[in-house]
Specification:
The structure is a homodimer of 405-residue chains. By secondary structure, chain A is of the alpha/beta class. Helices cover 40% and strands 15% of the residues of chain A. The first copy, chain A, is built from 17 helices and twelve strands. In chain A, strands 6-5-4-1-2-3-12 form a seven-stranded mixed sheet, with helices on both faces. In chain A, a hairpin with a 5-residue loop joins strand 7 and strand 8 (242-247). In chain A, helix 1 (18-28) crosses helix 6 and helix 9 crosses helix 13. Chains A and B meet through helix 1, helix 2, helix 5, helix 6 and strand 6 of A and helix 1, helix 2, helix 5, helix 6 and strand 6 of B.
Chain lengths: 405, 405
């Protein structure tokens, strides 16, 4: 955690990946992020993976360092409290993050009637309000058809990584700060809608791939694990370890040739095919039928340890294939990585959790925090933010409109 | 494009996906983003995909709406100009976005000596300065081993989508605004480092997957196109169309049962296995061996058009599998999508390009802009930002230190 956003207060009413992730990023940079949770939990409160006892490792991972107010959002008075929290006063407040429908009780219009300068960031499925999830976006924009080995023919390969949710979440956090900055200058309240579908198709376009299929009139075929447009693929070492090796820049390419001692073979290919690989990574891709076997042989003659030593000393770009369990025990990735710290999470289980994904050398990184228990901060927030007396809060409890931890 | 960040000036010295993408997001929200480009182009200036004439559709996709100053960064005087631009005065300037090494002529320390309140956001490979690309991060954290059909056994499946670059880019844009906001309050200049490797492993942890393997002691197996922890998979319609169907919430599940008219079959499974699917999406995943065939049969009895009609009217969460070319011609995704507009890009080719991925109902969306030509704004920026006279700029041209379009 860092203190960059300490003065900010964000109210979050959200579930699943993108919107909670935006709240997590804000919280990890110091913002006070107050979740408004349904008593008993929202639709993702039990989402897999879970602990043996049934606590959601997913939910506690996405909600670290936030506060939780538990309300009965199915009743008008509970909805009233949620709206009052979202639109509560304060020049650094009035920031609402959600994936609730555009037209419901948490619509921007309704909340802006209470606070005209409210900033709302709303993650959506489709821009028209229709449902969409990462997986239904990914298939619609054509990624599964170009993912995976050619041997799969027309069988599409879905991502297990919710890439569009992840991107939408970080982008939503960015947009929240952009609108908040604009508000400070203009006093203007606005809603930024972030539809997963638009995030997906705009990104394919930003990468040039939409223009590619439109200009060529053809779909990109599957290239398996080869990296499109440069040299890169997975290779197997003498001791049977699999490595990803990539060479995009001239520096990476020359380092690879040196590390594998294949200068003469490469020169022979250049001579025979009348090309030069050093300055043009695209040519490396065009001639991968000749380059891959050379690298394949050279890698197969060396152990993974030998390759690591020479690759690292020469600055080659490579990575080992590891299982997630191997990654979780990898010193550089986790066990000796200063962004991780083992804490007792809300499930009661102790494991390493990361703080902010960025490192600020000039600032002190504070320890990551656990997720809240549902309703853990109900009374505190109702008193501090809405100014309710303990008597009033007690009555809300009696009515079952709110729940504390 | 929107005007939310119009007063901001960001200087960008960057290549590949993440860092230019952060600059693109800032530019699409109104910031003035000035690229410092090597004369002749940086290492990604010709990156595939390209037009028939050899222009990079990738580069022009990632650099829309930015300005370009072309300098000879291999010479001290050219580097001096780049540093002077990055650290130029102005309360809304002094924001530097880069993927250059931490220790080079564009290190934060060197630039901060010129401007102590400089904010630098630096995308990196590894936190220690070592090289890493999306593909070498993805293999190291274990994603390729759980992506793709079980039939592939131990064969890993790389993403073709640079998901970690995309996330790092949006996150870098967020961090830029977080540090700029902090600077306005404290006057403090800082550097935020965003290593791809940390973005990757922290995200796996934020999703609960790191805790999953650590607590179970086992890696998640491959589930093909099944969505982990809920009901979701690809199915084939009577007319041979493939659809992705997901049901996470009770609402989505009940809608699916209604749309496919499978209430009795589902009830029979619930009775036989003594479970209830409606309230617990995890149980749907546990019993997918029984549920998938029921849905498979029901989907196979209906045409894609029939399914679309009932799914959309009932609010089921689904998506068609499309090729990228089909997506590029899809009315909702592109041709009738208000975020897209066909413009003449810098390559000379006209095609639909997207503006900001977010939509602000209260603000006017301005047309997307083309990418700059290399050096297109050299003279303008040297005069406006560095205050150089036309004579001084002329001398820089004579020395070959700068190039205009």
């Amino acid at each position: 955690m860092y203190d960059s956003l300490t003065s900010l207060r964000v109210v979050e009413a959200s579930s699943f990946v993108a919107s909670p992730l935006a709240g997590l990023y804000l919280a990890q940079m110091g913002a006070e992020v107050i979740r408004v949770d349904q008593i008993g939990g929202g639709p993702d409160f039990h989402r897999w993976p879970q602990t043996a006892a049934g606590a959601s490792l997913y939910w506690e991972g996405l909600n670290k360092g936030k506060k939780s107010v538990a309300l009965d959002l199915s009743r008008p008075d509970g909805r009233e409290l949620a709206a009052a929290l979202a639109a509560a006063p304060g020049e650094n407040a009035g920031l609402f993050l959600t994936n609730y429908p555009t037209d419901g009780f948490l619509s921007h219009e309704r909340l802006a009637a209470r606070r005209p300068d409210l900033v709302t960031v709303r993650v959506m499925g489709q821009a028209n309000g229709g449902p969409a999830l990462d997986y239904t976006v990914n298939c619609a924009i054509g990624v599964p058809h170009i993912t995976g080995p050619e041997s799969l023919k027309d069988e599409p390969v879905n991502h297990v990584l919710p890439a569009w949710d992840l991107l939408a979440g970080a982008y939503a956090a960015f947009v929240m700060l952009a609108l908040e900055r604009n508000r400070r200058g203009t006093g203007l309240g606005q809603e930024a809608r972030v539809p997963l579908m638009d995030v997906g198709i705009a990104t394919i376009a930003n990468l040039g791939q939409l223009a590619e299929v439109l200009t060529t009139g053809a779909n990109r075929p599957r290239y398996g694990n080869d990296v499109f447009g440069c040299f890169g693929r997975d290779f197997i070492s003498a001791d049977g370890k699999r490595l990803m090796i990539v060479a995009i820049t001239p520096r990476q390419w020359n380092a690879l040739i040196k590390a594998l001692d294949i200068a003469s073979e490469i020169a022979a290919i250049e001579l025979m095919r009348e090309v030069s690989f050093a300055q043009n990574e695209g040519v490396r891709f065009q001639h991968r039928d000749a380059l891959n076997p050379v690298v394949e042989r050279a890698v197969a003659q060396r152990t993974a340890a030998e390759l690591k030593a020479s690759f690292d000393s020469l600055g080659c770009c490579w990575g080992p294939y590891q299982t997630m369990l191997e990654a979780a025990k990898d010193s550089m990735l986790v066990t000796d990585n200063p962004i991780f710290e083992a804490i007792v999470q809300t499930s009661g289980v102790t494991y390493p959790v990361p703080g902010a994904m960025t490192t600020i050398p000039q600032a002190a990184r504070r320890s990551p925090l656990r997720a809240p228990r549902l309703g853990e901060h109900t009374d505190e927030i109702l008193a501090e933010v809405l100014g309710l007396t303990s008597g009033a809060i007690g009555r809300l409890h009696d009515q079952g409109l709110v729940a504390a931890d």
